[in-house]
Amino acid sequence: MHEQNAEYVTNEPMTERDVLNKASEILETKFLKGEGFTSPSAAKDFLRYKLAHQKREVFAVMLMDSQHRLIEYKELFFGTINAAPVYPREVMEEVLQKNSAAIILAHNHPSGMTEPSEADKRVTTRIKDALNHIDVPVLDHIVVGQDTVSFAERGLL
């Protein structure tokens, strides 16, 4: 676990992508069996570092324990610049394999536009309905673009 004021030193130049990757590693370490994701803003910050730099659509899941601490962040589906196929069955398999108590769904919009599409809403409902059968709540679905949008904050869950 890193201290809150830990110092990081690099001996080589870093690109913007290198810096973002390092920031996401630091955040992942912080939340991996450490602090819980107790607010949409913490999850949005974490996911912004993970997904904002992607050039194609990526659909990911944050698998969490009963205290909403991160068990694993997993990128499951990869698509084109504007769509990725998403299969609820594969999400459920990951949830069961990792013994997750809750999840947060996330994907990026490479266009930068963060408004959830009707397809985004439908896939969220399908995954939520599937996981409801095994008592695993979908806490949020976050769309990352130039900004971030939380389904939970918008009342879409």
From TrEMBL:
Pfam families recorded: RadC (PF04002)
Record flagged with keyword Protease: yes
Source organism superkingdom: Bacteria
Keywords of this entry: Hydrolase, Metal-binding, Metalloprotease, Protease, Zinc
InterPro entries per the UniProt record, alphabetical: MPN, RadC_JAB, UPF0758, UPF0758_CS
Family matches, as PROSITE patterns: MPN, UPF0758
Domain MPN stretches: 36-157
UniProt-recorded Gene Ontology molecular function terms: metal ion binding; metallopeptidase activity
Any one GO BP annotation for this protein: proteolysis
NCBIfam families: radc
Protein name: MPN domain-containing protein
Organism: Idiomarina ramblicola
